[in-house]
Structure formats: structure tokens, C-alpha cells
Amino acid sequence: MFIQFSKQHKDKMISEIQRFFYEERGEEIGLIAAENAYDFFKDQLGPYFYNKALRDARELVEQKMNTLEEDLYALEKNQ
Questions:
Q1: Cβ atoms < 10 Å from Cβ of 19
Q2: Is residue 46 within 8 Å of 3, Cβ to Cβ?
Q3: 3-state DSSP assignment of residue 59
Q4: pTM score of the predicted model
Q5: Which residues contact 3 (CB under 8 A, 6 or more apart)?
Q6: What does the alpha-carbon distance between residue 52 and residue 77 come to, in Å, rounded to a whole number?
Q7: Which tens digits make up the pLDDT trace of 25-64?
Q8: What is the 3-state secondary structure (H, E, C) of 3-44?
């Protein structure tokens, strides 16, 4: 997957994975296990979230373009 995060963001997400496992499952997982989970989520699930975000952005832009087109027609003068 082509998604890249800064080391700081990656480390934060790995920490959150460790926290989740501890709070939700009562399991303490190490750094390697958390990194493996991170890689799985990023590589296998990330594309679904990425594509959904693109569809949402496309829909928003289309709505804005339609509004802009309506506004431009409203500015036309009668001849």
C-alpha cells in the first residue's frame, strides 16, 4: 500500500494498538506484534478507508460544483 505516515504518527498508532489490546482484551502485546497488526490494518484494510474517503471527497466536490453552476446561472442577465 502506498500510504506513508511519519515515524511519529506510526509510533502513535502502534501505541494505540497496544492500548486497545490491553483495554479491550486484557492482553499486553509487544512492539513486534503491534507493528504486525499495524501493517495488516494499513495494507489490508487501509485501501477500503482510502477509497471511501475519495468517494466522499468526490461527492462533496460534485455538490459544490452543482451549487456553483446554479449560482452562475442566477447571475445571468436577461437579454
A1: 11
A2: yes
A3: helix
A4: 0.73
A5: 42, 46, 50
A6: 41
A7: 999 999 999 999 999 999 999 999 999 999 999 999 999 9
A8: CCCCHHHHHHHHHHHHHHHHHHHCCCCCHHHHHHHHHHHHHH
